[in-house]
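It is worth pausing here to work through a concrete case rather than discussing structure prediction in the abstract. The textbook approach is simple: state the sequence, then state the predicted structure, then interpret. We follow exactly that order.
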Amino acid sequence: LLVWSLWLFAFVVVAFLLVGQGLEKKREQLFFRRFFGPMIGCAFSLYVHNIRKLR
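Step two, the predicted structure:
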């Protein structure tokens, strides 16, 4: 479970790095936010939840 949450965290970091690079087209940005926004939110909440469980 810990490895899985670490993978999730790595995915979140990569997603934020991709956002940081900046997508030039507005349409791509909108798609990115709509698609990854909820996913990142869910992944982060699950990650925090798993960390609390492990403690």
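Step three, interpretation. Helices lie at 2-21, 26-54. The mean pLDDT is 74.
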